[in-house]
Amino acid sequence: MSTDAPFIGRGLAFPLRAGATGALAMVEDTANLEEAIRLIVATAPGERPMRPEFGCRIHDHVFAPINEATIGTIAFEVERAIARWDPRVDVEAVDVYVDDDVEGLLYIEVTYRIKANNDERNLVFPFYTIPESRGGD
Question: Are strands 89-98 and 119-128 parallel, antiparallel or unpaired?
Fold first, then answer.
């Protein structure tokens, strides 16, 4: 961590792994934020027994048809979850894109601003849905 950068945080790396010295790997600054946001989006509420409300409800839409309503709901759920679970950032935008080549694949692009230094960043998450069966298969 550079001495002139604001301290954003430090935590265990996810997934949990050993670092170069054999101790648990740690992440800090923007890497810590990125891992925290990824963890929020990737965790379904109820997955963590000690924090049953933690996570993002996008997983409720795995079997939903890919249409404007589903895309809007996914964007809303991602924005709401990050705003609730990571107070270090302000979500600027959440855009959901359909992959034209892979059926059932959506890309969720999150643009956020780090409150400590007003730095704007973005992350893109793949989200896989189960396409509707076409009948007769």
Answer: unpaired
